């Protein structure tokens, strides 16, 4: 691990960009090894120009904007990614300043917040992350050191291709935005416009990128949003209907309670009222229901007269109203006529 000395600001910013490029490749390695699609990694891919004697190929550039979407990943993925980066950093910590490593660890713990990790130049503007063709001169400005290549070494262009292939096989881990499509389509157009011959990996990447851009995850997401909105609306309407039913049931229960209590009160004033009401047990269910409704209406009429007409609720009035009410009705059942017994009082 290199110690912090009086390093000029410009040099420190350059080292931070170099470190971010390493970190970005390490993130891509994590997603590739775990067969996880993270489409944003392809939005920070640039073309390493070819020449008459060299095929054009792919490379990544240190883009801070990619990191801010990592916090949208599932918690288990974020946890594994954090562990992966910490382990990878131990392998290269002797190549970077201690202050850079400490700041990197802190920002990982803060939901991968790498805004203003280094000062952006025009080519690395976080607000306008458009893939670009990096010239040989720019390549020298942010030049990646040749680390020791182990047995499991996979080139940067190959890692970029693998990630694009994963994005075509599996749905995005995070929400696909129109801005992401714009960046990827812009990169595709730049690749198509390239004049020099392409490496085999770049040709495959172009094919995979074309396939990916034909898919409309954004539109699919909008469809899902509309389906969810319709479902939520139906759910709300169903809840309203259920609530109305509950209210109606409660209202009906309240009405039944009022009627039941009033009946008990009438019977407590004149217990003999039952002698003047039809015996419902003698009839079939349908007829019994009809007679029960008639009886309930008698009590409701009695309730109305007490509350509205201010009739005194006593034995005389209860029996007189009963006689008057039932004599006005004709109760008939096959082969039987229902009559109300006369008031002998």
Overview of this protein structure:
The structure is a single chain. By secondary structure, the chain is mostly helical. The protein is built from 10 helices and 4 strands. It has a two-stranded antiparallel ribbon with strand order 1-2. A two-stranded antiparallel sheet has the order 3-4. Helix 1 (9-33) crosses helix 2 and helix 6 runs antiparallel to helix 7. The longest helix has 53 residues, at 217-269. The termini are far apart. Residues 122-148 and 332-345 have low confidence and may be disordered. This is CDT1 Geminin-binding domain-containing protein. It comes from Paramecium tetraurelia.
Q: Please tell me the total number of domains.
A: 2
Distance between the termini: 114 Å
- Class from helix and strand fractions: mainly alpha
Number of helices: 10
How confident is the prediction overall: mean pLDDT? 76
- Low-pLDDT segments, ≥5 res: 122-148, 332-345
* Strand order in space, largest sheet: 1-2
C-alpha Rg (nearest Å): 42 Å
Percentage of residues in DSSP E strands? under 5%
Give the H and E element order: HEEHHHHHHHHHEE
Percentage of residues in helical conformation:
55-70%
The backbone outline, from C-alpha atoms, is rod-shaped
Compute the number of strand runs: 4
Summarize the main sheet: 2 strands, antiparallel
């Amino acid at each position: 691990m290199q110690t912090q000395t009086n390093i000029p600001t410009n040099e420190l910013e350059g080292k931070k960009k170099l470190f971010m490029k390493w970190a970005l490749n390490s993130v891509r390695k994590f997603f590739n090894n775990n067969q996880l699609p993270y489409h944003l990694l392809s939005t920070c891919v640039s073309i390493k120009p070819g020449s008459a004697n060299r095929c054009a190929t792919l490379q990544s550039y240190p883009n801070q904007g990619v990191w801010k979407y990592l916090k949208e990943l599932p918690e288990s993925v974020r946890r594994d990614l954090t562990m992966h980066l910490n382990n990878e950093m131990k392998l290269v910590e002797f190549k970077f300043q201690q202050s850079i490593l400490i700041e990197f660890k802190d920002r990982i713990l803060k939901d991968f917040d790498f805004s203003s990790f280094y000062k952006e130049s025009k080519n690395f503007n976080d607000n306008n992350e458009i893939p670009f063709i990096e010239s040989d001169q720019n390549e020298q400005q942010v030049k990646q050191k040749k680390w020791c290549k182990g047995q499991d070494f996979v080139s940067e262009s190959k890692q970029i291709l693998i990630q694009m292939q994963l994005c075509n096989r599996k749905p995005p881990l995070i929400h696909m935005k129109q801005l992401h499509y714009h960046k990827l389509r812009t990169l595709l157009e730049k690749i198509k416009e390239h004049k020099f011959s392409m490496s085999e990996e770049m040709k495959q990447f172009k094919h995979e990128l074309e396939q990916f851009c034909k898919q409309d995850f954004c539109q699919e997401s909008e469809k899902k949003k509309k389906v969810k909105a319709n479902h939520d609306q139906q759910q709300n309407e169903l809840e309203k209907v259920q609530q109305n039913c509950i209210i109606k049931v409660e209202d009906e229960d309240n009405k039944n309670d009022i009627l039941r209590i009033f009946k008990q009160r009438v019977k407590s004033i004149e217990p003999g009222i039952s002698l003047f009401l039809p015996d419902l047990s003698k009839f079939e269910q349908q007829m019994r229901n009809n007679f029960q409704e008639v009886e309930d209406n008698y009590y409701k009429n009695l309730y109305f007269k007490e509350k509205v007409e201010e009739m005194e609720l006593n034995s005389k009035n209860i029996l007189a109203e009963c006689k008057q009410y039932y004599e006005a009705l004709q109760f008939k059942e096959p082969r039987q006529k229902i009559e109300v017994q006369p008031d002998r009082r």
